Amino acid sequence: MTVWIFRRLIQAVFVMLAMTVIVFVGVNVIGDPVEILISPDADQAERIRAIAALGLDKPLWEQYLRFLWGAVRGDLGRSFVFNEPALQLISQRMPATLELAVTAVLLAVVLGIPLGLLAGLYPHSLFGRLAMAGSILGFSLPSFWVGLMFIMIFAVQLGWLPSTGRGATVTVFGIPWSFLTRDGLAHMAMPAFNLALGNIALVLRLTRSGVRENMPMDYVRFARAKGLSPQRVVFVHVLKNIMIPVVTVLGLQFGSTVAFAVVTESVFAWPGMGKLIIDSINVLDRPVIVAYLMMIVLMFVTINLIVDLLYTVLDPRVRIGGAE
Amino acid sequence: MTDATLVVTNLQTHFQMRNGVVRAVDGVSFEVRRGKILGLVGESGSGKSVTGFSILGLVDPPGGIVGGSIKFLGRELVGMAEPELRGLRGNRIAMVFQDPMMTLNPVLRIDTQMIETVRAHADVSHAEARTRSRDALGLVGIPSPDERLSSYPHQFSGGMRQRGAIAIALLHQPDLIVADEPTTALDVTIQAQILSEVQKLAANFGTALIWITHDLSVVAGLADDIAVMYAGRIVESGSVESVLDRPLHPYTHGLIGSVPSRNKRGSKLRQIPGMTPSMLGLPPGCAFRQRCERASEECKVSPPITHPAPERTLRCFHPQLELAA
Amino acid sequence: MSATVQREITPFRRFAADYASNKIAVVALIGVVIIVFLALFANLIAPQNPYDLAQLDIMDGRLPPGAKSPAGWTYWLGTDDQGRDMFSGILYGLRISLGVGFGSAATAGVIGSALGLIAAYAGGWVETAIMRLVDLQLSFPAILVALMILAFLGKGVMNVMLALVIVEWARYARTARAAALVERRREYVEAAECLALPQWRVLFRHILPNCMPPLIVIGAIQVASAILLEATLSFLGLGVPITEPSLGLLIANGYQYMLSGKYWISFYPGLALLVTIVCLNLVADQLRDVLNPRLQR
Predict the structure, then answer these.
(1) Complex ipTM, two decimals?
(2) Does A104 touch chain B (CB under 8 A)?
(3) Do A174 and A292 lie in a common domain?
(4) Which of A6, A268, B26, B183 is the most core-located residue (most Cβ within 10 A)?
């Protein structure tokens, strides 16, 4: 088991390294850093001085090592726009994004699994058909447009929910959270549900196909032949088997949800890091872009690692296989 | 007759498919007595498993029991309300399945799967249920049952899993066990061990046993009575000795003829010509007639059940009296 | 065996009959055909050229659906802030969206399939290198990869196309490789190799055609996701220029007017986008059911 974890860790480090190379090459070779980093009115002497100061006259591999060394110490440069360390900017915005993403994934679990179970148990019922049609729609809906429609219906027409922003927050451990106040929750409702929509459809489909695959299995018949209640058969025997793929996919999906929060945050003006990155791309604030990319890659690698670990906890067959 | 645990009369279990009705079980009658073993023999698709599931009320749509009666200790099971039926399942009637790799839930520990069975029918503490589970595992010959309880199914060998499944079936000392080809997937040596243990258990507890199999040699060594199924009907039944010694139905002849044995060494194995008919839209009459060398015009009508000898039934117009070569 | 024989006799008819077994899928296919038709002939159907600033009158801005134009015809879907007829805008936007979607999906399909086939056929380090890259890329969501590329390259239509191609090639490569690995072991490949045909010829003339069904299915899905991704990127302001709006940008333009209740500027382009994606996804679903022999009952 420890050997396996160690191997996975090394693999993760390699992915991180590969991504630093890609991001570095992307920023410094595909884009021209001189053009971005140095003001266009600077004269030739200033340019040369700045290039030397930034180490851009050094060979590429040396620049890369400097970049890597900086990244390891948490120094990814300063934002041109905010004149603050880029990493600090990102970290300030991250809790808001994570709050949104976690809520969205929780919504997907709370709504997707029960709906999927029902749709799987009664596939030919009206509900089962509606759920399937709804899930196709869930995949096809342009998320940003749905967000706009939400605003139009619930904020503009009905006036039930506030359209944008984060609302009142409560600071815990120095970080402001929206979910602790009524106002914050009201602000979070639409963006979280909007972000959850695709995930709900995904979990629904996974659960449904899991139920349909597992119900005809011998172990289900055997469990019924033991005289267990239908509730116990479905919620213990079947659900435990379905949870393995669902948790795996949901875990992996969490990273996508964080990435996709970019769209939701833009629609609802949610002050997370997704909104920051779009603004930064628009004004070419590269240090912030690089910091965002590195953070999110780190997040992905960590999530994949955790999902793998979780998988072994959930599936006893894998757990033993890993130990041997 | 009085000590009959199970009396099945004219059972009909049909499956409503999109392109027709499959009469998987079509008028089956038999009985099993206390402490006795009935071997239900037939090829795959003959309806023997569906018969087993019908007894437990586990036939799912599009299938369902459409007629007949299943009397268990005098109580009618056909049409019994689901909660009442559930109280019998795993308690008074237990079932063991064919593939031990598939019957135990792969992600639940053995003790979980046993304890839930105990507590589904008996109001006992968790600890008490665990003790009973351990005893059951010991009963079926699993060594160091205490440690084995906290294993997962995949840590068991195939034979051990089947013993585990049988242990679960025995937890409440049921009056009837339906065993659906429980040894087919196992090695021959393990098969023999399990057979002898099951025989012992049935005798000790007075449990009636229905042993579903396609293997005549298993039935010959194990069962008291035999019922031969073909295309949803029992074509011949009686005590094992009389049926195997004096088979009357051409299909039973064919089955016996196709079992390799020492006496017939060197002689060519006989095989039944043709294939099992499709159960969908089966024409009326004797279903075996296309493969039967004795078939005549008469066989286009369903042969009635006759009693050629006491305790024997037969569905054939042209019984074959001479022995299979 | 008999199935292959039948398919040789009337492969297309059989396929068409299989496809038509699902009525909804037929409707979706008709929908796709109509949408493509509308996009192709947008300049003939649209009452107005929305890109020709001379035809636009800012005084007509933000008129509700059904309002009359000064020239006397009706703005059935209203106008946007520039005084642009929304119906015309949607038709032209559809043209850009479909063009970007089909174009990038086709380009990615060619590149990805070729690399996938090469990986399957070459094996060794070539295969490892290609497939590792595929795995790495597919472990990140499409929107993130696209954002990354646009962050490096900057905004613009060509850059969005490039980003879409880079996002999509990997899935084709994985599919093509999987299919080719199966085909490689078939007898006809051995026969072709025994004839000492050049490798590229075996690969592209013999193996590729037999790998087409799964690639077509992936392609149909990819067109839908490319259109959706382009719309999303354009909505975020990273895609097409404001002068030639795709559906995504049309929706974005209506955003600020949404709060004052002028819903139509965002609503109708979004509806057009939704119908397009749903139709494409339904067609892809049915193609998968029909072309996937494992699922054939």
Answers:
(1) 0.84
(2) no
(3) yes
(4) A268
